[in-house]
Amino acid sequence: MKLNTLKKTPLASGLAMVLALMELVGLMGLVACSQIPTLPTGDWQVPLQWKETSQARAPESSSSGPISSSASTPSGSDQWWRALNDETLNRLEDELLAGNVNVLTLSAQVRVAQATLRQSQASLWPSVNVTASSSRAANQLSVPKGTSYSLNASLNWELDVWGRIDALTQVTNANAQASDADLTQAKRSARATLVQAYLNFRLAQAQSALLREAEAANEKSLALTQAKYRSGVVSQSDVAIAQTQFKTTQAQRHDLDLQSAQLEHALAVLMGRAPAELRLAPLPLRPLITLESSASPRTAVSMREDKEGVDRVVTWPPKPPALPEVVALTVLQKRPDIHAAQLRVQAANAQVGVAKAAFFPPLTLSSSAGYRSTDLPTLIGVGNQAWSLGPSLVLPLIDGGLRQANKEIAQAQLDSAVLNYRQVVLTAFQEVEDNLVASLELLAEEEAYQAAAQSALQNLKITLSQYQSGTLDYLNVVSAQTAALNAQKAFLNARTQRWLAWNVLQKNFFM
User: Fold this and answer.
1) Measuring CA to CA, which residue among 55, 128, 179 is closest to residue 369?
2) Measured between alpha carbons, how far is residue 23 from residues 17, 29, 89 in Å?
3) Is pLDDT of 154 > 80?
4) Cβ–Cβ contacts within 10 Å for residue 314, how many?
5) Mean pLDDT along residues 269-278
6) What is the pLDDT of residue 296?
7) Per-residue three-class SS string for 66-117
8) DSSP secondary structure, 396-460, as one string
9) What pLDDT, on the 0 to 100 scale, is given for residue 3?
10) Are 508 and 331 in contact (CB under 8 A)?
């Protein structure tokens, strides 16, 4: 149905009618109907405390459900990686976001989402166009033969009586906010990934340094065994065993050097650089007290004695700090991926409103005013004025079930978004629980390996002394060397794994 008038009257009269109708439209907009349904309340409860730690405490108030809970927008976080006191890591983190390809890609997607939001908001306002045309016609009933000219300004405005445009704007707004949350999550994930890669890189370097010291010790043992063989004290079998031990340790060291190089390449790519553009200095050797002392829990990575008899070791990694006391609800409030999933539920819910509004006829206001004449010099004149004004309603009667199918699709997408939100929350809670139990168990594991390494090194010292005096064969030395090396490597690995678990927890708690 369309009401349309066209008559040559003074242009001011037509514009006055347009303004009057626009005022009426404004009043209609105040009573516009919204088709967006109320979001469902979650049918499952957020746990009040963590299973794997006694440090968690229950919040004063709990949430009624994951969908109805009010998660705050994620904000900036503490720079948790600085707890390692590693200037190289700090420098890499400072430069990370400027080059990380994934972060830059999501930044572009955020700009697309923001532009899409502005695009949908533009539909709330009328569009005005100016058209100038010239045409020549012949043998037409309504137009005289010859050339005609026109200058016309038109206005088109879809009145959001049923809330379709408002719902569509809410869809794009929620999606834009979700894209921004995705970007925040990508930044935090990139930072945590950098810490993880850097820790593994330093672990490979530290274990390589330990093997380098063991390789030097095995080479000395091989030389001693060969000297004893030439003196007829030991058999050729002892020489072969010493040679095997030396070469095996050497091969293991090369394997760790390979891992270290590849991890350095991964760090470069994470920074958005080619591997050749990043070179990190190896760990230094620093003085440390003897392993027999229980005064320090720090690791002994690479051990040797200098001329003054002072043990020298690589003092890495340091002892991880204590875990924070965080309630479970904090993860809901701080993790950007949870916030993004919640926003996508809101977007899917608003999309249901868009689909429901499609069952109502859209009301469009169209108007135009201008001039039409067959004489170009006199085109703009009172006698050549023309205007039109009229609303239109379009109600499709038969669409083959298209609108009903669109509504069912929107409802199914809402159900999927709700379930995806729940899965994101569950995955986040699993990540926290996994790393809480890892932190607790790895602490006990580290202490056990610390004691085992001290005992193994003491046993190696005694075994070497007995071998040199001829009371033990070389198989005992090999066994003692292997046990000492494995215990030290395991201690290094346990402490690094504690840092990795701590890194994941900080990513969850301080976003």
Assistant:
1) 128
2) 10, 10, 62
3) no
4) 24
5) 92
6) 36
7) CCCCCCCCCCCCCCHHHHHCCHHHHHHHHHHHHHCHHHHHHHHHHHHHHHHH
8) -S--TTHHHHHHHHHHHHHHHHHHHHHHHHHHHHHHHHHHHHHHHHHHHHHHHHHHHHHHHHHHH
9) 39
10) yes
As a whole number of angstroms, the distance between CA 355 and CA 163 comes to 11
Predicted pLDDT at 103: 87
Our CA angle for 105, 102, 417, nearest 5°, is 80
- pLDDT at 143 (0 to 100): 54
Q: Do residues 245 and 220 make contact, with C-beta atoms less than 8 angstroms apart?
A: no
Span 21-52, pLDDT tens digits: 555 555 455 445 677 877 766 556 666 667 76
- 354 has pLDDT over 80: yes
Going from the C-alpha of 258 to that of each of 26, 195, 205, 219, 255, the distances in angstroms are: 71, 20, 10, 22, 5
Burial class of residue 76 in the structure, from the number of CB atoms within 10 Å of its CB (0-12 exposed, 13-18 middle, 19+ buried): exposed
The residue among 311, 343, 322 whose CA lies nearest residue 420 is 343
- Closest by alpha carbon to 291, among 350, 210, 353? 210
AA letter at 121? Q
Average pLDDT over residues 158-178: 82
| Helix 402-469 with 474-509: angle, nearest 10 deg | 150
Structure tokens at 479: 């066994």
Question: How far does the chain reach from its first CA to its final CA, in angstroms?
Answer: 55
H or E stretch at 287 = strand 286-287
Nearest CA among 393, 360, 357 for reference residue 164:
357
| Calpha distance 280→91 (Å, rounded) | 11
The pair of structure tokens assigned to 356 is 């429901």
